[in-house]
Amino acid sequence: MASNRHLGRIIALQTLYEQDFRLSADDATFDLDEVLERNIARYEAMVDDTKFIVALSHGVSEQAGELDAELQPIAPEWPIDQIARMDRVVLRIGLYELKNSKDVPPKVVINEAVELAKAFGSENSSKFVNGVLGTALRQQDAAEPKPTTKKAATKTAKKKPSKSNDKEAPIS
Fold first, then answer.
1. How far is CA 26 from CA 19, 22, 23, 30, 72, in A?
2. What is the pTM (predicted TM-score) of this model?
3. How far apart are the first and last CA of the chain?
4. Residue 159 to residue 1: CA distance in whole angstroms
């Protein structure tokens, strides 16, 4: 299943790359579902989880503006429209999965994005993608409330001795 998901991400990447290219060229005939259908058909014998590919492609496409807005402050010296198209699409996929794929561990998401960048990006793409998504993950982790640990819960449950009583209360 893992390799199937990897291939699924490659198909989504191809689809989203074509979308980004054609929309930047003002191609009014672009149809995401048509391109997805064509790209999935190419790998029909090797892909089982087409729902994953469709959901990933549509999710990234629908949230591209929001994803770009989140990515921009993470790499402020690189305006989104100046990031290489392939890197931009890989970053969108990675950030989308970090935010929305709770069944995939964040380190796996980042590793998959780095592998896509190595395979399809330029020489330094994988380092750039790793740095940006690593920062996004740290920011996401910092924003989420931390669950109380067992040790912290135990400390708050222990009672301090009362000042009115010189004897210490037993701690159970």
1. 10, 6, 5, 9, 23
2. 0.81
3. 49
4. 51
Residue for token digits 């629908």? 62
For the chain, give every domain's residue range: 2-157
Question: DSSP characters for 68-87?
Answer: HHHHGGGSTTS-GGGS-HHH
Strand runs (DSSP E) across 8-107, as ranges?
none
From the centroid of its chain, how far is CA 148? 26
Report the distance separating Cα 119 and Cα 70, nearest Å.
Answer: 25
Neighbouring CB atoms inside 10 A of 92's CB total 25
Residues 4-40: tens digit of each pLDDT: 899 999 999 999 999 999 999 999 999 999 999 999 9
Q: Which CATH architecture has domain 2-157?
A: Orthogonal Bundle (1.10)
Q: For residues 80 and 72, is the Cβ–Cβ distance under 8 A?
A: yes
